[in-house]
Amino acid sequence: MKNSKFKLVAAFGILLFAILIGINAQEPTPSAPKSVRMPAVTEKKLQNELTVAVVERKNVPLVTVQLLIRGGADSEGFAKAGLANMTAGLLTKGTTTRSATQIAQQMEFLGGSIGSSAGWNNSAVSINVMSDKLDQALAIMADVVLNPKFAPKEIDLLKAQIQDGLSYSLKQPGFLANYVASVYSFGEHPSGGTPDSIKSIQRTDILNFKRENYLPNNSVLIFTGDITAEKATALAKKFFGSWKIPPPPKASTTRLGKPMFFNTGTPLFRRMLVVDLPNAGQASVNYTKSVIESGRVRCASGKCESSEIFYPAKVMNSVLGGGYSSRLNQEIRIKRGLSYGAGSDFGWRGTSANFGTRTQTKNESAAEVAELVLAEIKKLAESNLAENELNPRKLVITGDFGRDLETNGGLAEAVSAIYGYFLSTNELNTFMPAVQSVTADQVQKFSNEYLMGGDLIIVGDYAKFKDDLAKRFPQFKVTLITAEKLDLMKLDGN
Amino acid sequence: MRKILGLFGLAVILAGAAVAQVKIAPLNFKERTLANGMKIVSVRENSSPTVSIHVWYDVGGKDDPEGRSGFAHMFEHMMFKSTKNMPNEKLDRLTEDVGGFNNASTWEDYTNYYEVVPSNHLEVLLWAEGDRMVNLNVDEKNFASEREVVKEEFRQSVLAQPYGRFFEYIGSLSYQKHPYQRGVIGNLAELDAATSKDAREFYNTFYRPDNATLIVAGDFDQSQFDGWVDKYFGRIQKPSGTIPRVKVTEPVRTTEKRYLKTAPNVPFPAVAITYLGPNSKSEDMAALEIAETILSGGESSRLYQSLIYQQQIAQEADFSVDTRIDTGLLYFYAIASEGHTAQELEKSLMTELKKIQTAPVTIKELQKAKNQIITGAFQALETNDGKALAIERAMIYEGSAKAVNEGIAKLQAVTVADVQRVMKKYFTQNNRVVIYYQAEGETK
User: How far apart are the CA of A250 and the nearest CA of chain B, in angstroms?
Assistant: First the structure.
């Protein structure tokens, strides 16, 4: 097989790259690739400093509108974990003039949907509706953002629902592993909340969070789909023009927050945590590593650009655990049949990143899978990638990126991610070339500097892998906790 | 993989007093049948240089060999292994490595394989699909390894999920005779019993051009595409012998049946109430889909408003129309919120059922449901892959590609009387199976 050949075209478009394969005479060769036009973002600022961003596309008569609010779980603190998400969730549960039921009825009568939730750095409210009903839908959306009621009975109901959801999720090995890792490895808190934190959240906490974070000069209103920039701007003025920046000006909260403590990476991994979940149907095996030296962006005087680690990290992840043919899935699923799937990803923060691998396997093979995961981390740090592995893994990233932009919802998410990190919208155009320009040396350097020295976390039926784990990792002390008695506050983060 | 959403394609005209009229062109597809019996459907859409390729075979979980539950699905995994001309996982090289993707899914009634790639790779993918239709190697080593993967898939989706077994029970306890009772994923013992010899027989029996359909949507040149189809599929021989078909008719239920099932790590009790429904081509399907949306489409739906919002006895409450070619399944289910019981859930679900049977739904509810389904149908068609999938479902469940353009009109024609009629027709006491599901060791 020949190596992949590719070249960049820098003008307005990006070329999809041909791979020339000559495995046998029968197999046809792909024809020349065609260029892809990236969507153009039109940006306007209203008098109240609300940014309006529009991407027009007319393939279906639908519009997605997303209001991005810079402020999420990073602004809530451990004791009130889940506050950002609860605040967002309660917006659609009643305004001064509409009950929760009326909001749902009116939006759904338009055939549309409304959703609101919070991530780590941001909160968002989104609607998706047919373009001829956008005016009516936007009136509802503006109402829930500007005039939410936060009625006590709605707060009580949402708290009960979140508690039930946690009871359910905490029985699943994969969820439980991430939940524990957020504290143990990343020095954060679970952004969905804990049973204790949810219980402690009061109506005043919600009102304060809303007042401090939901501000027009802290938000971006994004339109994608069947709408012109002129129409979008007019609608934004009509429905969000009255949104005031309240005095006193917003206290400067720490966005893009840092973890509370550090890992110092020298050994392959430092700690081993087992959460015993008796009778679990599988074990979740995770390697986690906090990257604290750098994150999604590098900022100076209010302007941000992608950090020096972002693209090398993305390519590294594609090699290790992004997509079906990544190394982890090759070793664990394809070669050995030990799992239905194995992968890895980054939880990006402004100035840090949470790296984690994930896979589930039968309890009996948990220790074997742990060894395989660690071996792949080590391999990345110690040896250089061949071009014929590197190039296809870059195309996985650029291909996924292109497909994500095919729907209005995906497009709105991509634009939102840009604004959420204070990046320039030109990042949409530079994304694919930036991925292509990453070298094997950069990937190895990143792996060597940032991936080693993390934690191994296994959640499952401990009795079934205890002996094998001790045999395979004789020098390691296992920290053992039981799922039933899990107390995150007492989990030793370092 | 179980639930089918709307069967509806692009709207012709959205009528109705409360909505503005939207006129949209139908999906303009081209259809032909090759001499070997293979069906070909194509839709050109050149707005972006990508193409979606679907090949579906008329074989699904219901066609699993006797004592080999889960076999059709396990075989689907084998289709990514080596052929005479391709090494293992070559399909990933042809898709993932050029910025595309591939996948496959096995349903009760069919199996599909699909790829999305930059459009200059269309010919290569047609070649590969043709190749694995006739040249698959089924070797022992691959078979053994893939069996382990499927067992992990079973553990992950059924055993490691608190309600994984519950959803399997809904299928398995609802059918008495029809092979639908076995479920697509099967069980560990029968997966273990399967052999590579079974796999070769299965391949020879069902993977043939007269049991396959190719659907391509996206950026291509029609005459060039037609030529490639002739070259890579037209030359495949139609084998002799007939394709075996499931002929079992699920008997009419004659009396209510009740079950209590338990599993580890189940935080709250759950209940399911199932009814046998019509087949997927029935004229009643549009009205049932409207009822499904009125009962459980969104937060303004009846079940959400009653069980979750007002009574607060459930964290999840749903009514589903599970579309199947033979006998469909209509079921309610709910998962309790803290402190509430399966009995309470059953009682409230039955109250809602009685309500929709005895009083007609309002005009406003009917219109809301239509608007919701139409928006969903447009969303499903945003991508080339969505278009190919919509045509695929129309062919499988309604028997023709053109049904993709007729769905909205059928939906618009549904009246409040139709909804009431279907809710009375299928939801009778004797046609009921009730399943309680709770944690092991807990008393009822």
Answer: 34
Q: Give contacts of B161 with chain A, Cβ < 8 Å.
A: 172, 281
Rounded to the nearest angstrom, the minimum Cα separation between B93 and chain A is 8
**Please, which residues have CB within 8 angstroms of residue A104's CB and are 6 or more apart in sequence?**
A92, B298, B299, B300, B304
ipTM: 0.90
- Residues of chain A numbered 97-156 and touching chain B (CB < 8 Å): 100-101, 104-105, 107-113, 128-130, 132-133
pLDDT tops 60 at residue B379: yes
Q: Is the pLDDT of residue A23 over 90?
A: no
Task: Give the tens place of pLDDT for each residue, B342-375.
Answer: 999 999 999 999 999 999 999 999 999 999 999 9
- C-alpha separations of B310 from B81, B314, B354, B365 in Å: 53, 10, 18, 19
Which of A128, A278, A407 has its CB closest to that of B383? A407
Secondary structure string (H, E, C) spanning A284-297 = EEEEEEEECCCCCE
The SS3 assignment for B208 reads: coil
Q: Does A408 touch chain B (CB under 8 A)?
A: yes
Q: Which residue has the higher pLDDT, A114 or A477?
A: A114
Burial zone of B139 (CB within 10 Å; 0-12 exposed, 13-18 middle, 19+ buried): middle
At residue A22, φ and ψ (nearest 5 deg) are -135, 60
Contact residues on chain A for B378, CB-CB shorter than 8 A? 60-62, 130
Residues B285-294 have pLDDT tens digits of 999 999 999 9
Q: Band the pLDDT of A29: cuts 50, 70, 90.
A: confident
Q: What is the pTM of this model?
A: 0.91
